[in-house]
Amino acid sequence: MINNPILIVHGEPNSIFSEILFKSYKKKIAEKLNRPILIIGSVDLLKSQMKLLKYSIKIKSINLKNLKNLKLNKKIINVIDVKYSYKKTFDKVSENSSIYIGKCFSIAIKLLKKKTAFGLINGPISKKYFLKKKYLGITEYLAKKTISKQKPTMLIYNSSFSVCPITTHLPLKKVSKNLTKEKIINDIKNINNFYKNNYKIKPKFAILGLNPHCESIEKVSEEERIIKPAMKYLKKNKIFIKGPFSADTFFSKQNLIDYDVCVGMYHDQVLTPMKTIFNFDAINLTLGLPFLRVSPDHGINSPMIGKNKSNPQSLISSIKFFKKIK
Q1: How many CA atoms lie within 13 A of 238 on its CB side?
Q2: Over the stretch 23-32, which tens digit does the pLDDT of each residue have?
């Protein structure tokens, strides 16, 4: 149904997210979608933060039981209210918000499982306090909570160029041990299907090596043992892929034109150049879930909380992204 809303989980209450949410609504981004938006979070907190930041947008509390037959007004902020106890409008990030975030995600996942919602955007979340080392990231957290049979894939997406880290939030010393041919194949297949299903194109992949200059003092490098065999399998399955390329020279202007997706072996290998090139104009997609999950490609940004100076572009890009998805 076209009326099925896009859900936005408020995320860490002590972050810049409410600010960029209000800025997005002031730009009337929600009104331009073919689907309504439904926020999952604390009505009281959002009103308090709005007052402090000096915005004026109507907030309406939505009854979860009546959601199926409800027509949501795109001009206002519709919220499924989740109770949250707080002393200050903006406070320091702590464990206090973890229960609140968990409740928000729980409601979102139930609605998505029932197919009464279309997709999910979540605000930034403190991995330290919320995940408590039980999961590598929200990508893995959602995969576990949705009992996804498919292994999830992180794609940092921009319409002109995207990147994927094969390992996500792992310490560097553990990257090599967690690289597998199967993981590379899984992620590239997920991304390939995403582009084919939504954009009707066969994406061109570039894959990076793990070692500097794709060279190693070991007898058999990860490039020879893992990356090249994965590439061979993917090529047999008619996926366009070239490499492995050395990460230090890959991100030239010409390569950004020649390829659609760059696949790296670890998080910062591809996210650092991606954020340098596109700044706030990129979003974090989780592929391989029973639904599409999107999040702005930035964190809580504690130094900027309450200052009303944060750039909303990544959230705007996250919301506008759903215009392209059927």
Answers
A1: 4
A2: 999 999 888 8
Q: Which two tokens stand for residue 50?
A: 């709005």
DSSP one-letter string for 102-171: HHHHHHHHHHHHTTSS-EEEE----IIIIITTSSSSHHHHHHHHTT-SSPPEEEEE-SS-EEEESS-S--
Peptide bond preceding 244 in cis form (omega within 30 of 0) = yes
For 47, the 3-state DSSP assignment is helix
Integer Cα distance of 15 and 245 in angstroms = 37
Q: Residue 228's beta-bridge partner residues? A: none
Give 86-112 pLDDT, tens digit per residue.
999 998 888 888 899 999 999 999 999
Write the pLDDT tens digit of every residue in 277-301.
998 788 899 998 989 899 887 677 8
Residue 272 has pLDDT above 70, yes or no: yes
DSSP H/E element including 208: strand 205-208
Question: Which domains does the chain possess?
Answer: 1-148+289-326 (3.40.718.10), 151-279 (3.40.718.10)
Beta bridge partners of 284: 156, 295
Which of left, alpha, beta for 299 (phi over 0: left; psi -120 to 50: alpha)? beta
pTM score, whole prediction: 0.87
Contact between residue 24 and residue 316 where contact means Cβ atoms under 8 Å apart: yes
